[in-house]
Amino acid sequence: MTYLEQAINKGYATLSGEGTKQRITYVAVNHTERFADPEEQVRAEYWAELIFRCGYEPARIGIEVTVPDRTPKDAADLVVFTDDARMRPFAVLECKRDGVTDAEFAQAVEQACGNGTWAKFRAVYVGVIAGQTRRFLDFTERYGVLEREANIIADMPRQYGKPEEWRFRKGTSEDIQPVSKESLIATINKCHKTLWGGGRLSPPMAFGELCKLLFVKIQDEKTPRKNGEPYEFQIKTHEPSRQLAERIKGIYDIAKKKDPLVFTDTIRIDDDTLRTLVSHMESVSFNKTDLDTKGVAFEQFMDGFFKGNFGQYFTPREIIAFAVEMMNPKSDELVIDPACGSGGFLLYALDHVRRAATDYHVPGTNEHYNHWHEFAQRNLYGIEINDEIARVAKMNMILHDDGHSNIAGEDALDRLERMRERTGNNGFSDGRFDLILTNPPFGSQINLTERPYLPDFYLGNQEDAKGKRRPRKNQKTEILFIERVWEFLKPGTGRAAVVLPDGILTNSSLQYVRDFMLERFKLLAVVSLPQTAFAHFGAGVKASVVFLRRRAADEKPSDNEAIFMAAPEKIGYDATGRKCENQLPEVVKQYGEFCRNPEPFFV
Question: Kind and range of the H or E element at 80?
């Protein structure tokens, strides 16, 4: 139950009306406001928090209090008084809607300080509340009216007492708490806006710095501490920004040494910005928030951020979920995505195994946890050529409770022995994987002058007029990825779901690629995707999901091999960009029927 719900149950406040006309009445001071206003909702919730968490009497909390003799006239959103007559201010507080810009928040701080330090209305403490982003300042005699940093305190004092050194302590009523999907999305969005700063950092750099802070926050939550001990990732009373930044960076450096595969560079955020980011995140428990909430929140945030130029790194979740369901990964199978982007295919494979764990073990038991957690740590592999996006994939896996240790920021087409040397991971070997789920990059060319590994590929060569194979000058990336998929799979049993442009399947000039595929793979299914499937990410390519099994060394193609084919018309978004029906789950059912009775099939 929220603090406001408690206040309404106690009769301290009442709600009347509905929708945009709903109003709230603060009974003790007989004041009514329009509750539909987002800013009013923040004020109402914090007003109730002052009562139930901080211990102040409702009759001593003024609402919309006019500051006497102030020019121009101004009214404080909330004022905690020390007397029943509401004449002597103890704290002056401004409330803003959640998600205001940093500039708007800074302006609110100045407004609150102006009101709270006014000669005829002098308060001891001043605060600004914008959802979970808060700032409180100490204006006791030791600080002047212009101070804005040395007087920052961790939290609003309780019952007219002194400020606590820390607000958030493990195992207490002030422990950090899990949050809803909406709150988590709002928190991540606020952090990104602060980092991006209207152009201070490029969007990829801003996102990379956000991932570093998420990494620090999660590591701090995982650090063993006794009940009552404070968390480190929070604002401490009377601590300058420089000292806070040193503490956060110290956690980062320790975590970086323990887990060097995630980040190698330093945090590149100035001290004041870092304080703002901590204020956004300090009250949220990422570890306690359930996996589904974290997954959807992070995915939706990326979905909104990485479009256009960055859309190449992401695959619509409907297609990812479909490919995973079709392939039905098991907990003992080795899975790799050699073009993993943000890690979508790997995460959905992990989630699939996690759900399946309930079929074998009782949820909450060690056996249930180990069933999917060992799969995450040992059986999931990813390769991503873009270092920043590889970090996003690792961070995505960490948010889902691990599975990041086998993600490499490498060129998946490079020689595997070089990849093993650079990463120190012998897992990236040919003929090793049970399942590949991937959407390789389309359209770019691998040039012989830039990539000397091109002749290593069969498809990187061609026959000359004398029938002798010689290196091509260039080859499309998606064609080389087909061969790399074949190399990674176990002979005879290894399966793959690969998103490919339709040109691979239809262009007469690429018959040699199709011949390569049919000779080395058994074609299980081809599902043609509508033109709009990737439009949401700024791409209009026509593509299909091709399902394959690597043939055994002595296995020859047969003329009567049954192939499942389907062409759903609705997936994710329609031509106008609106969300539409997803027909892929029905295709999965039909494929199940095909597998039970493998006759040539077309939907």
Answer: strand 75-81
Tokens of 384: 């991503």
DSSP state of 311: G
Spatial neighbors of 44 by CB under 8 A, at least 6 apart, are 4, 13, 24, 35
Distance CA 386, CA 522 (A): 32
Across-strand partners of 525?
A: 547, 564
Question: Which string of b and e fits 392-424 if b means at least 16 CB within 10 Å?
Answer: bbbbbbbbbbebbbbbbbbbbbbebeebbeebe
Mean pLDDT (10-residue bins), the chain, 603 residues = 95 95 96 96 98 97 91 89 96 95 95 91 95 95 91 97 96 93 87 78 77 90 94 96 96 86 84 95 91 74 56 73 95 96 90 91 89 91 88 82 83 94 91 97 89 94 86 95 98 97 93 96 94 67 93 91 88 73 88 80 51
Distance CA 589, CA 571 (A): 16
What are the start-end ranges of the H helices in 53-117? Answer: 102-116
Structure tokens at 69: 């003799």
| 454, 514 contact by CB (below 8 A) | no
Decide: 320 and 344 in contact? Cβ < 8 Å.
yes
Cα separation, 280 vs 189, in Å, equals 10
DSSP secondary structure code for residue 579 in this structure? B
Burial pattern 121-146, b for ≥16 Cβ within 10 A else e, equals bebbbbbbbbbbbbbbbbbeeeeeee
What tokens appear for 455 in the block?
């002749």
Q: Measure the CA–CA gap between 78 and 91, rounded to whole angstroms.
A: 8
Identify whether the C-beta of residue 334 lies closer than 8 Å to the C-beta of residue 379: yes
Nearest to 228 by CA among 163, 136, 155, 166: 166
* Number of neighbouring beta carbons within 10 Å of residue 312: 21
**Could you tell me whether strands 61-66 and 75-81 are parallel, antiparallel, or unpaired per DSSP bridges?**
antiparallel
Identify whether the C-beta of residue 462 lies closer than 8 Å to the C-beta of residue 472: yes
Dist CA 48 CA 431 (whole Å): 62
The values of phi and psi at residue 357, to 5°, are -60, -30
Phi and psi at residue 137, in whole multiples of 5°? -130, 145
What count of residues does the chain have?
603
Residues near 5 by beta carbon (within 8 Å), at least 6 away in sequence = none
The helix/strand/coil state of 266 is coil
Per-position DSSP letters for 349-361, written without gaps between them: HHHHHHHHGGGTS
- The Cβ of residue 190 has, within 10 Å, a number of other Cβ atoms equal to 25
Residues 166 and 237 sit within 8 Å (Cβ to Cβ): yes
- Can you give the pTM of this predicted structure? 0.78
How far out from the chain centre does Cα 29 lie? Answer: 43
Instruction: Say whether the peptide bond before residue 72 is cis (omega within 30 degrees of 0).
Output: yes
Q: Answer for the pair 54, 64: CB distance below 8 angstroms, yes or no.
A: no
Helix axes 3-10, 38-52, angle to 10 degrees: 70
Shortest CA distance to 116 belongs to which of 100, 106, 128?
A: 128
CB 259 within 8 A of CB 230: no
**d(C-alpha 416, C-alpha 539), whole Å:** 30
